[in-house]
């Protein structure tokens, strides 16, 4: 089963004929892919008659899937620039409608520009290395020998039950992966998202490609195991829209539904640059997971400073933000090596204590105390 990471750009073939040939090739390898061919404007003459019969049978038996295919066709037409436009519109709405004057401040423009540069750097890496990254993910998936449900398990109305299960299951996976990213070794990949000191809709795009790759792989495994790959782009869009929403500077809490769907107020505390809020409110969509596992934090409206300046992380230097994971992991490896040398030396001084390390190699205090759990 082919595996593709959606966080990486999916560049369309330059000519329609090439897209048709690619779709036809996939169909020859796996007849279940035939239901996607109709969306490629493929003529009946391009496919043998027996394949056409299979395609028609699949469409008759799995009509609810056609709805998802139609939605997916629409989703594939969307690109990041559309969401940048949406973020800009909502910034204007917050400025004029909610009196959030800092939405158009110099500080906001600087942070947004930094986010844009980080996003472009991620896309550049994806452009040159997406095949290698996808190949690596595919090898992992193949090596795990993950069993899958029968292909027709979700035929008919049952697909809607599968859709709800996927949303809950995916958020469950996201919660624990997010929690792992607030530990010593996971934090470097996640730190980029917390460097924004003006959290708004644009913050959705301030994420290191290492984190986005890890997050996507987890739920791709879930969806392919459940035989619901057609839900991948739909859930990716839902996640993007909800992430954009929870990063808005609003005090909305969702009232009695605050444990069912994450609100802007809930997620704003997750970005607060205060000790008591770090490592809290980790759920992406369903705060019930935070409530169940002891990371829920809701003292009221959040007016605390945003970002991670107290941890020594830059908020407006995209280069430092992007290379931070590699720098910090290098420091952690060097520190572990020194500790190992000290232990092997029986405390004879072969190692170097934390306080004797150069200040440039020390991990910020806030990160050590809060994010090394």
Describe this structure in words.
The chain contains 13 helices and no strands. It has helices at 16-29, 49-61, 63-75, 80-97, 106-144, 158-180, 187-190, 209-225, 232-246, 264-271, 288-293, 318-344, 365-370. The chain starts with 15 loop residues before the first helix and ends with a helix. Residues 1-29, 31-62 and 348-373 have low confidence and may be disordered.
Concise structural overview:
Among the domains are: 46 residues, no CATH class; 200 residues, no CATH class. The protein is built from 13 helices and no strands.
Give me some keywords for this one:
single chain, 373 residues
Radius of gyration: 23 Å
N-to-C SSE series? Answer: HHHHHHHHHHHHH
Strand content: under 5%
Which segments are poorly predicted (pLDDT under 50) over 5 or more consecutive residues? 1-29, 31-62, 348-373
Largest sheet: none
Number of strand segments: 0
């Amino acid at each position: 089963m082919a595996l593709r990471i959606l966080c990486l750009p999916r560049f369309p073939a330059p000519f329609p004929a090439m897209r048709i040939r690619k779709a036809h090739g996939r169909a020859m390898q796996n007849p279940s892919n035939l239901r996607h061919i109709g969306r490629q404007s493929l003529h009946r003459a391009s496919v043998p008659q027996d394949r056409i019969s299979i395609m028609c049978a699949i469409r008759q038996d799995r009509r609810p899937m056609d709805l998802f295919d139609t939605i997916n066709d629409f989703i594939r037409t969307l690109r990041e620039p559309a969401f940048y436009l949406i973020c800009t519109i909502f910034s204007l709405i917050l400025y004029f409608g909610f009196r959030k004057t800092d939405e158009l401040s110099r500080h906001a423009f600087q942070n947004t520009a930094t986010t844009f540069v980080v996003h472009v750097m991620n896309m550049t890496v994806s452009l040159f290395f997406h095949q290698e990254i996808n190949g690596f993910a595919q090898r992992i998936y193949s090596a795990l020998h993950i069993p899958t449900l029968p292909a027709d398990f979700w035929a008919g109305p049952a697909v809607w039950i599968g859709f709800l299960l996927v949303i809950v299951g995916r958020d469950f996976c996201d919660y624990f992966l997010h929690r792992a990213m607030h530990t010593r070794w996971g934090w470097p990949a996640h730190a980029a998202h917390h460097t924004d000191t003006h959290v708004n809709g644009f913050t959705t795009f301030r994420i290191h490609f290492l984190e986005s790759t890890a997050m996507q792989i987890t739920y791709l495994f879930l969806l392919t195991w459940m035989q619901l790959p057609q839900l991948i782009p739909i859930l990716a869009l839902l996640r993007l829209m909800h992430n954009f929403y929870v990063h808005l500077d609003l005090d909305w809490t969702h009232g009695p539904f605050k444990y069912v769907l994450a609100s802007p107020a809930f997620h704003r505390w997750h970005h607060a640059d205060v000790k008591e809020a770090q490592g809290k409110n980790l759920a992406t969509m369903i705060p019930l997971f935070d409530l169940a596992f002891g990371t829920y934090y809701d003292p009221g409206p959040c007016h605390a400073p945003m970002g991670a300046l107290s941890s020594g992380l830059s908020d407006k230097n995209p280069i430092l933000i992007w290379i931070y994971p590699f720098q910090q992991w290098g420091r952690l490896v060097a520190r572990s090596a020194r500790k190992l040398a000290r232990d092997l030396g029986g405390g004879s001084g072969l190692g170097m204590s934390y306080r004797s390390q150069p200040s440039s190699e020390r991990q910020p205090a806030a990160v050590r105390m809060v994010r090394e759990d």
